[in-house]
Design brief:
The protein has 152 residues and is an all-alpha fold. It contains 5 helices and no strands. The chain is globular. It binds heme C (HEC). Heme C binds next to helix 3, helix 4 and helix 5.
């Protein structure tokens, strides 16, 4: 790749970041990523509701986590095999690491196909109705985090 292409790409990247930051400041809950691997603090300042988080994980119009993950949700017949099985994930990852993956897994792995559930700019492959919106609200993110934390 030539130096000129690189410079153009860098400029494009800077612009995207600036837009995303503005939107975050204006309308979205602020969050802090620590060491690129964790969001230790709740987006709402409160703990979420694990029972509602489980429902959101099943709901195809919300989390739809089952599309890609095997989860301990026996009443649902379809479990996807795209991502790792989530049973036991709370033993592998801290609460903050789980939250970061739900907010925006691309911070950990830019190439992941896992959608960013709390991001509204620069989303690719999103349904029209999600344009300009996050896929989950801050409170819904916390409910899903609370549920995933129970998967020891
Ligand atoms: C389109 C597929 C897809 C969907 C939908 C999806 N994920 Fe993922 N997820 C992945 C993939 C693939 C990974 C593996 C990590 C990577 O790609 O970087 C992953 C990784 C994870 C991890 C880390 C697992 C580990 O062992 O490190 C967690 C936690 C997680 N997902 C939770 C969720 C939750 C909760 C939802 C629903 C709100 C969800 N995912 C929806 C594809 C998906």
């Amino acid at each position: 790749m030539g130096a000129k292409t690189k410079a153009i790409m860098a400029a494009g990247f800077a612009l995207t970041v600036a837009i995303a930051t503005n939107a975050t400041a204006a309308e979205m809950a602020m969050y802090k990523v620590v060491k690129g691997e964790s969001i230790p603090k709740s987006l709402t300042g409160k703990a979420g509701d694990p029972a509602n988080g489980r429902k959101l994980a099943i709901d195809r119009k919300k989390g739809n986590c089952l599309a890609c993950h095997v989860m301990p949700i026996p009443e649902q017949s379809f479990h996807g095999l795209v991502g790792p099985e989530l049973k036991g994930v709370a033993g592998r990852l801290s609460e903050g690491e789980i939250r970061l993956r739900i907010v925006n897994s691309k911070i950990v792995n830019p190439d992941t196909i896992m959608p960013a559930f709390y991001k509204k700019d620069g989303l690719t492959r999103v349904l029209k109705k999600f344009k300009g919106k996050t896929m989950l609200s801050a409170a819904e993110v916390e409910d899903v985090v609370a549920y995933v934390k129970t998967l020891k």
